[in-house]
Design brief:
The chain is of the alpha/beta class. It has eleven helices and 15 strands. The strands form three sheets. Strands 2, 3, 6, 7, 8, 11, 12, 13, 14 and 15 form a ten-stranded mixed sheet that branches. β7, α3 and β8 form a beta-alpha-beta unit. α3 packs across α11 (339-359) and α4 crosses α6 (232-243). It starts with a helix and ends with a strand. It comes from Lentithecium fluviatile CBS 122367. Pfam families: PAF-AH_p_II.
């Protein structure tokens, strides 16, 4: 979404005098656990990076979020590393966020160490997450921290050249390429799906799990893994279900569907959650895939939501006290629901789906008739 030059100039004038103080993004929901987080990179020696065009092996960046009890030491960690924060601040200045917005944000996490006790003596279910095209995995960190606090191991993937910017631990920066044609989108979808499958395989390697979930003396439950995605990540979630038989279920947050799954369908639980007016009636890909979903399935519409309601962005604007100061038209990106409420809705429905698929087997909140979330409409 672009802004006119006149509006952009007005925004720059309006926000030039604003200063941003440090702000902590909260864990949303009544969840019982502290959460530790790490970032690492993994390289797949069996695959070339088809976007790099230089015969390098495919590497990905991964953020992990995992619940702990009796946390010995909390810490405030930057929401993003420096180069990524600067990139995002410049990018979103065009939408009215003042300079330094992302540099000012932090997450309160448990300092990962052998002194932090796992929240369970049993292996925990695992959740794999893939974000939107042209979007950093880090723009979902607060949401995914909240999901982890409900008792899940969560891994969020950056797909280099597909994400707008990926900052590796050694300081290497990969900015996104222009992915717009049908062929490019299909290549991105295949690459994302292979990234998810590669990460899933790595979870059987104890040295990798110790790197990702340090000092936690327990692995994930390999029989209990689900995949979630936003936008193109939602299409990748469906494609991963098709490719990885052991995945228990998948959830698509607001993503148009692509690829073989449209006709092949799925035999495991799959849920669609769309922003206002994104339903089977407005997205032909949703109608096509719906007819071929043979397992448990649900479709929800969130009234007042827009495409990036399913990220941290609405919460970021609320935390920075900007939600009522942004320019007209921003609701087309962030929706009209207050930021804390927006992420509360997303986390509630994501965790309800995960609880059903990976824990209790009961649909709970997804069964309908819940008055807590009047914004959410069950479509099918």
């Amino acid at each position: 979404m672009g802004l006119s030059a006149t509006l952009l100039c007005a925004l720059l004038s309006l926000f030039s005098s604003l200063t941003v103080s440090a702000a902590v993004l909260p864990v949303i929901g009544t969840h019982p656990f502290d959460v530790a987080t790490t970032s690492t990179f993994l390289t797949d020696p069996e695959r070339l990076d088809l976007f790099a065009n230089d015969s390098r092996a495919r590497s990905i960046m991964v953020s992990s979020f995992y619940p702990v009890s009796a946390c010995r030491q909390n810490r405030f960690m930057p929401y993003m590393p420096p180069a990524t924060a600067a990139f995002q601040s410049e990018k979103f200045a065009a939408y009215g966020l003042p300079n330094g917005s992302f540099q000012s944000l932090a997450l309160k996490t448990c300092h990962a160490s052998t002194n932090s006790r796992p929240c369970s003596s049993k292996p925990l279910p695992l959740v794999l997450f893939s974000g939107a095209l042209g979007t950093s995995r880090l723009l979902y960190s607060s949401m995914l921290q909240s999901v982890a606090a409900a008792g899940y191991l969560v891994l969020s993937i950056d797909h280099p050249y597909d994400a707008d910017v990926v900052e590796f631990l050694d300081g290497t920066i990969i900015t996104g390429t222009d992915i717009s044609s049908d062929a490019e989108v299909e290549l991105a979808l295949v690459t994302r799906t292979d990234d998810i499958a590669f990460l899933h395989r790595q979870m059987a390697n104890s040295s990798i799990t110790e790197k990702i979930f340090p000092g936690q003396l327990r692995g994930h439950d390999g029989q209990k893994t689900a995949v979630i995605g936003h936008s193109l990540g939602g299409a990748a979630a469906a494609a991963a279900l098709l490719q990885i038989p052991s995945l228990r279920g998948g959830l698509n947050l607001d993503g148009t569907m692509f690829g073989p799954v449209l006709t092949a369908g799925l035999d495991r639980p799959f849920m669609l959650v769309g922003h206002e007016n994104k339903t089977q009636e407005t997205d032909p890909s949703w109608k096509a895939v719906w007819l071929n979903l043979k397992g448990w399935k649900k479709e929800f519409e969130v009234r007042g939501a827009a495409h990036y309601s399913f990220s941290d962005l609405p919460l970021v604007t609320s935390i920075l006290s900007l939600q009522n100061k942004l320019p007209p038209g921003i609701e087309q990106l962030l929706g009209t629901v207050e930021g804390h409420r927006t992420i509360e809705i997303t986390v509630a429905y994501v965790t309800a789906f995960l609880d059903m698929v990976l824990k209790s087997g009961e649909d709970g909140l997804l069964g309908g008739g819940n008055e807590r979330f009047s914004e959410v409409v069950e479509v099918a």
